[in-house]
TrEMBL record:
Domain Acyltransferase: residue ranges: 35-390
Organism ancestry: Bacteria, Bacillati, Actinomycetota, Actinomycetes, Kitasatosporales
MF terms (GO), sorted A to Z: acyltransferase activity, transferring groups other than amino-acyl groups
Keywords: Acyltransferase, Membrane, Transferase, Transmembrane, Transmembrane helix
Protein name: Acyltransferase
Length: 437
């Protein structure tokens, strides 16, 4: 029944206002995806230079000698950015779950559809690279079949000997897979639990506490392994496995929850965003500079780095649209976002490419040749990554179109003779009042 013309329109409920704020925040977050693409580009380039730096280390009876004997430069190049990838990935993938749990915007996909889409994104290139590199390094069968099996099943992260075989950097993809499985398990549970809570504040508190628990669990694991059991840092499965590294993903999940909870509130201006970014960057540099094997900074490097990347991304994403800091121009530059577009291919191919160039003599073998080698590997890596993206990554991502928005197989050839269209009911259906606002 309609309201009489003289009646005032009903005041929107807090849930409706929150939904509109969340929608506006969603649009603003989408506009910030360009900055995240720039971060991907910077992180990918940093990873390439870091691995070239490692290649030119010299180990002898006196210890390890970096290619450039400058601790300040070494701390900058050795600054690990893998946690940035984890935080960004978790933030983007958790947004839809956070909106559904906090504001009731049920735009999440079924778990099987979510996993299918992630598989089309990473598996075609990954399987191709693993099979190609493994075949070249194992010319006679059966070869190291266990290494191949573990890489194809993403279990090489649990193998002390083979964790860095074939494609060294891909140990992190094992953690990505573990996070995907964790998200599709806890995401729907969080949404169901939040539907029973009446206030938005309670829903935010529940989601934030869950993220905090996921963050603290790996910290507790690391503390027990290092302090109570005395496990050395070179035990790779203990400190590189998902049980020790999911904290970075938890930080990204918490960032998604925080930004959905805030909506358009609390956006920072250019000066404050710049101060936060500079402070976070300085903290990351100091963490790298003071980190040494077995000391406190080294032991808790990754959970601390995840928090600093959290702060840096917050200063990037939650900024007033009318007061964008100047350093955002770098993140939005065409060349850097172009690197970000092909960053996954660059991440996959740069190490085998570097080793091939080094073994064939295309790269200098002396430590003095490190700067030239880094430039050459970056340039060659970007060329290979660009070809790989358009030849493998992009076509593979189109496989996601095999399913519709509801996660069902897409019907490409609809029935040309559909059945009769059912007649509408004689009386209009009553609109069902939502259970949770």
């Amino acid at each position: 029944m309609t309201s009489p013309p003289a009646a005032q329109p009903p005041k929107p409920s807090s849930g409706a206002r929150a939904s509109r704020a969340s929608s506006a925040s969603s649009a603003s977050s989408a506009s910030r995806s360009v900055e995240l693409q720039g971060f991907r580009g910077l992180a990918a380039l940093s990873t390439v230079v870091f691995h070239v730096w490692q290649q030119y280390y010299v180990y002898d009876a006196q210890g390890a000698h970096p290619p450039v004997d400058n601790p300040y430069l070494g701390a900058l190049i050795s600054l690990e950015v893998i946690d940035l990838f984890f935080v960004m990935s978790a933030y983007l993938l958790t947004l839809s779950y956070a909106r559904a749990a906090i504001d009731g915007e049920d735009r999440t996909r079924p778990g099987r559809d979510f996993l299918f889409r992630r598989a089309t994104r990473i598996l075609p290139l990954y399987f191709l690279a693993v099979l190609l590199v493994w075949s070249l390094r194992n010319p006679s069968l059966p070869g190291d079949w266990r290494d191949l099996l573990e890489h194809l099943t993403f279990t090489h992260v649990f193998d002390q000997e083979r964790i860095f075989y074939t494609l060294g950097p891909t140990w992190s993809l094992s953690l990505e897979i573990a996070f995907y499985l964790t998200l599709v398990a806890v995401g729907p549970l969080a949404i169901r639990a939040c539907r029973r809570l009446r206030t938005r504040r309670a829903r935010v508190a529940l989601c934030a506490s869950g993220c905090a628990a996921l963050y603290l669990a790996p910290v507790a694991w690391t503390a027990v392994a290092h302090h109570a059991l005395g496990v050395p840092h070179t035990n790779w499965p203990v400190y590189f496995g998902p049980q020790a590294r999911l904290g970075g993903f938890a930080a990204g999940m918490l960032l998604a929850v925080l930004l959905v909870a805030l909506g358009e509130r609390g956006r920072v201006g250019a000066r404050r965003a710049t101060a936060m970014a500079v402070t976070a960057a300085a903290g990351l540099y100091a963490l790298s500079y003071y980190s040494a094997p077995e000391n406190t900074w080294h032991t808790y490097y990754h959970p601390l780095a995840a928090l600093l990347w959290f702060a840096l991304l917050y200063a990037t994403l939650h900024v007033r649209t009318t007061a964008r800091p100047r350093w955002h121009a770098l993140l939005r530059s065409g060349w850097l976002t172009g690197v970000g577009l092909v960053s996954y291919s660059l991440y996959i191919w740069h190490e085998p490419l570097m080793l091939f160039l080094y073994d064939t003599g295309a790269l200098p073998h002396s430590q003095a040749g490190f700067p030239l080698a880094a430039l050459f590997v970056v340039a060659a890596g970007l060329l290979v990554a660009t070809v790989s993206y358009w030849a493998v990554e992009y076509p593979g991502s189109l496989l996601a179109g095999l399913r519709d928005k509801r996660g069902r197989p897409r019907e490409f050839y609809p029935d040309p003779n559909p059945g009769p269209v059912p007649e509408p009911p004689s009386q209009p259906l009553r609109e069902v009042e939502p259970a949770v606002r």
